[in-house]
Amino acid sequence: MSDSHGHHPKPKTPTQQRVEAIEALLVERGLITSDVVDAIVETYEHDVGPMNGARVVAKARVDPEYRARLLEDGTSAVGELGFGGAEGEHLVVLENTEDVHHVVVCTLCSCYPWPVLGLPPHWYKSFAYRSRMVREPRAVLAEFGTTVPDDVEMQVWDSSAEVRYMVLPLAPDDVAGRSEDELAGLVTRDHMIGVVR
Amino acid sequence: MDGVHDMGGMHGFGAVPVEDEPVFHEPWEGRTVGLMIATAAAGLRQGSIRPGIEAIDPATYLGSTYFERWAASVESGLIDAGTLTSAEIDARAEAPEPPRDHRDDTNADMVNWLKGALINRPHGPSGDDVPARFDVGDRVTVKRMAPVGHHRCPRYIRGATGTVTRLPGGWPHASGDGPPEATYTVRFAMTDLWGDDAEPGWLSIDLWERYLE
Asked: What SS3 class is residue B182?
């Protein structure tokens, strides 16, 4: 593949031009500063993401009392690990079991528990996911390669008001032999949305 | 409003694009998120971007990306609040130029406050004391209605009857008007939403009291 065109910057889209214009105008007037915008971008690129939720899940695996607190009051329990804030002010944790499978969607926009999962992935915001998950969850899960056995109850959660939802996924069989760090490494964003079981 | 953003149950959008992609495809998408949060924190526009997204005309909504819709709503919010005018944004977009006269383009106090607030803001009152008309176990029916302003009651549950499973608390309605109002987690059988051929299972959703009877 030739890379010879890579030196020419892509033409800016109208939206990109307007966003840059807005930032320039606000900065010039002293209404915001660019370092504030930088800090927000850096936060969601590096500091906040599914690694936070994975730590929550791992702690729940090794500490039954923490698990109980997490299921009782998700907001406070994730706060114990230093996670909270925007789009996570009221967090409810849903526990997957051998008998029940939970999966989360937002049909009206893309509500998502930012402090534990970061910003939502592209597909979570797609019209296909938003329209279909509430109507045919098993068909949608199949597109992620996930098969939920017929005798497992399906529970779909449409995040519509103030609560944000996160799934506590099924534990691996060999929890006892693993460290909390190892357990965190086994948990993915998709487990905590519920599109992977 | 009952707009095209209310997608639950619609047909025709095809398969879910499950491929993984970076948080931001392009730097301007990150700037859009940063501007959304910073302008709200600085009081330069009203907080929620959802009403502005829903006000995008349906064809444009469907033809734009997620962050393009955010950018449109941040822009309309700044204009509605009187912070910027459409004409000055037009002019600057047509003749792009980095900010001039910004020697003091740093605000360490706000950076530190925002970093703290985004990562671990003490959560606000839960609204536990808000009076609630229904209780766990009650059967409730979602009203038939056609609300004009911003709301969070999708069409696909209207007229359906479900069971209250939890009282998460009370908060001002999404439209921002009035005192805190009770919300309910209501669980519906899939067959009550989609008919006898529906996949078996349950759908849970949080609803403000005004939507229920």
From this structure: strand
